[in-house]
Amino acid sequence: xxxxxxxxxxxxxxxxxxxxxxxxxxxxxxxxxxxxxxxxxxxxxxxxxxxxxxxxxxxxxxxxxxxxxxxxxxxxxxxxxxxxxxxxxxxxxxxxxxxxxxxxxxxxxxxxxxxxxxxxxxxxxxxxxxxxxxxxxxxxxxxxxxxxxxxxxxxxxxxxxxxxxxxxxxxxxxxxxxxxxxxxxxxxxxxxxxxxxxxxxxxxxxxxxxxxxxxxxxxxxxxxxxxxxxxxxxxxxxxxxxxxxxxxxxxxxxxxxxxxxxxxxxxxxxxxxxxxxxxxxxxxxxxxxxxxxxxxxxxxxxxxxxxxxxxxxxxxxxxxxxxxxxxxxxxxxxxxxxxxxxxxxxxxxxxxxxxxxxxxxxxxxxxxxxxxxxxxxxxxxxxxxxxxxxxxxxxxxxxxxxxx
Length: 404
Ligand code: 7TS
Description:
Layout (H helix, E strand, L loop, with lengths): L3 H6 L7 E2 L2 E2 L1 E2 L10 H14 L9 H20 L8 E4 L2 H12 L8 E5 L8 H10 L2 E5 L9 H7 L4 E7 L11 H10 L3 E5 L11 H4 L3 E5 L10 E5 L1 H6 L10 E4 L4 E3 L13 H17 L1 H20 L4 E4 L8 E6 L4 H10 L2 E2 L1 E3 L4 H7 L4 E5 L6 H18 L1
Parallel strand pairs: 3-15, 5-6, 5-7, 7-8, 8-9
Antiparallel strand pairs: 1-2, 4-10, 9-10, 11-12, 13-14, 14-17, 16-17
This protein binds ligand 7TS.
Ligand 7TS binds next to helix 4.
């Protein structure tokens, strides 16, 4: 039974006030809030078994190592990954993408092509531009359409024997579009290209099965899915991870070190140089446990209700336009009101205790496509309520009255 009132009690922050009003947190695409279960895991680690891992014979180190490796297996099983060492624990999506981009710099040749989509977050654009600059590879872009979907005909036309890599997000952080990643993966493989899927926005809404999906890389950040900041995942197929060189050198990632030559450790350690975010890894595992207790079917059902209700309510405001209207979309609404700057709406609703994001959302190409400087973005999580959407709508109406 999905009981949003009971669920909200798990999140201490949801009972605080902002500017004298009850907090209405609708900036979940930027980062999610954390339940007590995750906060307790962090407090417990630092209170009872804080130690460095993979290196101590003492009891605390072994306890911490066991907890960290247990978390890795939870992540593996959650994402339907075949082997635990295909889970590389990173500092987050951006770090994960940069590991892959750096690795491909030794694989690509001038004239090779890599494909990104117009819907990407800057963190899934800039590393590939840097890679192209370093290797002489060419960046191609899958165009978007007015609804905020990707043009699959254009994608198929871009794919050719020169294509080595495709990068696409599972869900757009700005528009909420759910991209057809199964189809895109099959098509990339048809021409022998690898595909990386940026799951930063999907993992709080959907439980992907990565073996079934057959993508080559999948990346995400724990903080988007009720976990802490500073920890995330790079999934890679074993053969790819074996092939790519390490990103950073240091302790943990080596086998033998002499001044003449160093050999690297096996997976996953090859990509995990230095003392990792031990506590973050353990808390990532706790976040996955928590989300699975709620259940992804129930999460999706509630979020669809929120999305449909909010879409209807917001569209009833005269002059309000929603960007991102594909049929397959998640609980993110980007909007503007004619003649009003998004920042001004964001500031007024903040005074009423409502947190939304305003601006470009790290997706300038989307803003350029719509010829706008930014949007107001309300992004809903499973702990949000219909009453909060009523408060948002009333606040936006008030902002409109004050600003027009
Ligand atoms: N990719 C997508 C699709 C994202 O939404 C984000 C963060 C990132 C990559 C980068 O993730 P990080 O954890 O490495 O920073 N998106 C947002 C957002 O929409 N608002 O703030 C951060």
